[in-house]
Amino acid sequence: MLTDNHGRKITYLRLAVTDRCNLRCFYCMPEEGINWLGRAELLSYEEMLRVCSLLVSMGIEKIRITGGEPFVRKDMMALLNALAGIDGLKEISMTTNGVLTAPYIPELKSLGIKSVNLSLDTLDAGRFFSITRRDEFAAVMHTLDELLKHDMEVKINAVVMDGRNIEDIVPLANLTKNLPIGMRFIEEMPFNGDSHIYKGLAWDHLRILEHIRESYPEIHKVKDAPYSTSYNYHIPGHQGSIGIIAAYSRTFCGTCNRIRLTPEGELKTCLYEGDGLNVKNLLRRGIGDAELQQVLTNVIGHRAKDGWEAEAERKASDPAHESMASIGG
User: Positions of the region Disordered (predicted)?
Assistant: First the structure.
């Protein structure tokens, strides 16, 4: 098993396959987008598969595909098919904005992909356009319908933003009444590509819970799964569940079991750290698997204690100048 210097077992890789996205969510990137990576700057699928296969042999059990938006990259299903063939990999899941996803759902299910996280910050088409700067609300809702129709495990991710979608918290929570979904509310983070000035957290996980409790006083805490990033709750009589992710407060760092591989091939042991290990350069210099395994083990063995320490150690500029699309959502 991969174990970091704080005794945490690392079993989960978040693999960002592209920095490109067909939405322009203001909390993630500027309206004009970011400086997109050229094709040669991205890890190739072959390079991704090599790294993933090696990490699985070292103890990674779950891989989540993220972006940007995964389905913006061509031949995504070919990569997923290859990942599904890695011996020892127990689970593949995906995070998507849902704009292009619907046609691929039957094939995703046939590959054994059981869980999809769908980004959806509002149930109002006008606010959706205001947040994403794109008129794709109907496409996302169609994807949600198709995921449920195919009995996929669905979690909806909503970033809670002061002055933007607070009125959506209760309607989104109410989706759990008749739908078997996990509705997850996420604290806003400062990774917006400098599109707007991040003024600090107005709605933390405690305030989000109290806001929901005003409408659902009977909401109660349920047991969190091992390594859960969310505090989980249930409203009696509802099919689904509520989760609140303290992404900025970083209260779950003590049990973090995940690492990230960015589209340009940086291995990050924490979302909040600066420059990670440039795996792409090592691969293209011809590093062997045994040596790469030692390098990966060494990096994971020098991991920050938590997101606050990682942020303090950053060598890059202020994190507000980064985009979640380039880090990997």
Answer: 307-329
pLDDT above 80: residue 324: no
Between the alpha carbon of residue 96 and those of residues 47, 210, 328, the distances in Å are 22, 28, 12
pLDDT tens figures, 24-35:
998 887 776 667
> 0.85 cut: is pTM over it?
yes
Tokens of 290: 């045994």
DSSP labels for 249-263? TTTTGGG--EEEE-T
pLDDT tens-digit series, residues 43-52: 999 999 999 9
Nearest Cα residue to 27 out of 131, 172, 137? 131
As to burial, measured by CB atoms within 10 angstroms (0-12 exposed, 13-18 middle, 19+ buried), residue 178 is: exposed
Go through the domains of the chain in sequence order and give each one's CATH number.
Answer: 2-327 (3.20.20.70)
DSSP, collapsed to helix, strand or coil, labels residue 290 as helix
